[in-house]
UniProtKB/TrEMBL annotation:
Residues 133-232 bind DNA. The lineage of its organism: Bacteria, Bacillati, Actinomycetota, Actinomycetes, Kitasatosporales. The keyword Transcription applies. This is Response regulator transcription factor. Signal peptide: none annotated. It comes from Streptomyces spinosisporus. Keywords: DNA-binding, Phosphoprotein, Transcription, Transcription regulation. The modification 4-aspartylphosphate is found at D53. Residues 133-232 form the OmpR/PhoB-type domain. SUPFAM superfamilies: C-terminal effector domain of the bipartite response regulators (SSF46894), CheY-like (SSF52172). InterPro entries: CheY-like_superfamily (IPR011006), OmpR/PhoB-type_DNA-bd (IPR001867), Sig_transdc_resp-reg_C-effctor (IPR016032), Sig_transdc_resp-reg_receiver (IPR001789), WalR-like (IPR039420), WH-like_DNA-bd_sf (IPR036388).
Length: 235
């Protein structure tokens, strides 16, 4: 079984570490970097759990939790695990009083965070109703992180480990623009010799495998000056 976890963390490297840890556990993840985006994603996506950093821009974690627990049914039953660099007792108590289900103080162990998430999901009762299908789908693509399988319009696609990790990240968040650095982080542990420019090669190879015409891609699109994104619509 897996959960859909919303990660609200403004530190991109920390957010990517959490996202990859969640994927390794069989979960799916949506990552946002400010409080306003966290509230919007919580309302639209109704995740099974929110990992919420307190020091978010725009709206801080306290504000996000206050709105989620405000009783408008937009997110008052979604479990929240808070991350904080603040160890003061008053901050921790305030977070718990606002309705956080658990908290961790930075720096923390990713393995311990995953264990806390499992505990909160079980305690909240959401573990009973978690989606048993871990496959993520978008744009005619399906990526199964448990079986390590990719299909395009139902047909199997052979991918290298690095290509698989890049595609998994992009299919899980269609329309999100990924920088080369972010995609490179996805391949760490699978392609240690890779560089940011090597991401271009991975994208080119993926286009050969999933695009009808790799020279005129309709799925894996270049966002000039930024990076790449997966078009969320069907080609």
């Amino acid at each position: 079984m897996c959960a859909h976890v919303l990660v609200a963390e403004d530190d991109e490297m920390q957010a990517e570490l959490i996202r990859r840890s969640l994927l390794a556990e069989g979960h799916t993840a949506t990552v946002v970097h400010d409080g306003a985006a966290a509230l919007d994603a919580a309302r639209r996506l109704r995740p099974d759990l929110v990992v919420l950093d307190l020091m978010l821009p725009v709206v801080d974690g306290f504000g996000v939790c206050r709105v989620l627990r405000g009783g408008d049914r937009s997110g008052d039953d979604i479990p929240v695990v808070m991350l904080t660099a603040r160890s003061e007792e008053d901050d921790v108590l305030l977070g718990l009083e606002l309705g956080a289900d658990d908290y961790m103080t930075k720096p923390y162990s990713p393995r311990e965070l995953m264990a806390r998430i499992r505990t909160v999901l079980r305690r909240s009762g959401r573990a009973v109703g978690l989606r048993e299908d871990p496959v993520v789908r978008a744009a005619g693509l399906s990526v199964d992180p448990e079986r390590h399988e990719v299909r395009c319009e139902g047909e199997p696609v052979e991918c290298t480990p690095a290509e698989f990790q890049i595609l998994l990240a992009m299919v899980a968040e269609p329309e999100r623009v990924f920088t080369r650095r972010q995609l490179l982080q996805c391949t760490h542990g699978f392609d240690r010799a890779s560089t940011e420019r090597a991401i271009d090669v991975h994208i080119m190879n993926l286009r050969r495998k999933i695009e009808t015409d790799p020279r005129r891609p309709v799925r894996l699109l270049t966002v000039f000056g930024v990076g790449y994104k997966l078009s969320g619509g069907r080609p």
